[in-house]
Q: What sequence folds into this?
């Protein structure tokens, strides 16, 4: 195992997603264990801005796979293009962010490359040249350690697990020709519309402020939006809040919502039902605000405030504003 590690460079709004630097840290660990050089794949139509960013990353090579039919993400089109890059690079480990796009693409591209696939990994290593990963299973109750026996292994990496690599480089660029036709991008995305500008997706957010049924209305979520604005955080919700129509389903954290892994999770007026906990219990620091001192969320929380959220949240927000000078 020394043919190299390839990272799929996910692009959003023309720019590389921040998780790219986390993936380089993960790839460097494998490289230092004899995994070979680290390179990056860029797939799209015009990837100029992202290419400028990619060339300045500490990787040895950047491969581009460009085609007019790759203007928007399509799993078939991108998988076909990425497979060509995998072949050209000769890499035998390919890493993705465990984002919506990364999970979708890694599965289809792994099938095309006849590769093993490990999803949502939190640790990677090489054991006698084979990729070994650790990943949470059974809603995060236990970790499974798995080892690849296939010649090529794909892995998606959970956001906010690896420290983003610092530093810069001057990577060499190789264009990889791709053969794509209309049949491969049937039903593809025509337009991408951003819903909330400036906020990160829940699965990638470093700070999340989540609200529960206790918010009582959609309008009352404004106090959480205000706190989130101060902290540059993303707002989430419990299923009860979503079912009550206070927030759309895309905000839901938990078993039937999103699994998140932020550095800080602030649960506001959320009881801490097991179905909610499985979606956020790997958060690095959990803060709970609840008026019931016996609420189960306090058993998981690192810090707790017992009080009425309508009093506490604005006060907490004011204190953060003073501390952060905003
Ligand atoms: C199959 C299945 C899947 C599910 N999937 C999910 C999921 O993905 N995500 C999810 O979240 N849930 C999920 N649930 C639902 C879950 O069981 C709980 O019902 C839900 O999480 C409760 O949401 P909540 O904490 O907002 O509401 P509640 O349980 O009603 O809790 C409200 C909390 O707010 C506190 N509170 C009330 N007023 C105030 C106030 N003014 N100030 C401070 N605190 C206050 C209360 O003390 C209480 O602790 C699922 C359930 C099932 C059966």
A:
């Amino acid at each position: 195992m020394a043919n190299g590690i390839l990272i799929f460079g996910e692009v959003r709004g023309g720019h590389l997603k921040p998780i790219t630097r986390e993936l380089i840290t993960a790839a460097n660990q494998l490289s230092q264990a004899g995994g070979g050089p680290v390179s990056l794949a860029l797939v799209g139509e015009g990837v100029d801005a992202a290419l400028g960013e990619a060339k300045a990353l500490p990787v040895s090579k950047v491969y581009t796979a460009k085609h007019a039919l790759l203007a928007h993400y399509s799993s078939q089109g991108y998988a076909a293009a990425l497979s060509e890059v995998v072949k050209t690079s000769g890499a035998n480990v390919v890493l993705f962010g465990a984002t919506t796009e990364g999970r979708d693409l890694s599965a289809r591209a792994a099938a095309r490359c006849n590769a093993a696939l490990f999803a949502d990994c939190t640790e990677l290593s090489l054991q006698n040249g084979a990729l070994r990963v650790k990943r949470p299973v059974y809603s995060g109750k236990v970790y499974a350690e798995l080892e690849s026996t296939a010649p090529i292994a794909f892995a998606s990496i959970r956001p906010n697990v690896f420290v983003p690599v610092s530093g810069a480089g001057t990577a060499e660029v190789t264009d990889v020709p791709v053969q794509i036709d209309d049949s491969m991008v049937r039903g593809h995305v025509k337009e991408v519309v951003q819903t909330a500008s400036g906020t990160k997706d829940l699965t990638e957010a470093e700070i999340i402020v989540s609200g529960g049924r206790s918010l009582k209305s959609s309008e009352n979520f404004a106090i959480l939006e205000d706190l989130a604005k101060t902290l540059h955080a993303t707002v989430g919700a419990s299923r009860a809040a979503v079912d009550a129509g206070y927030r759309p389903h895309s905000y839901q954290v938990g078993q039937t919502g999103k699994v998140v892994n932020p550095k800080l999770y602030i649960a506001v007026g959320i009881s801490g039902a097991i179905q909610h906990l499985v979606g956020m219990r790997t958060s690095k620091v959990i803060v709970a605000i609840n008026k019931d001192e016996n609420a189960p969320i306090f058993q998981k929380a690192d810090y707790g405030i017992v009080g009425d959220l309508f009093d506490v949240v604005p006060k907490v927000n004011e204190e953060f504003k003073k501390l952060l000078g905003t």
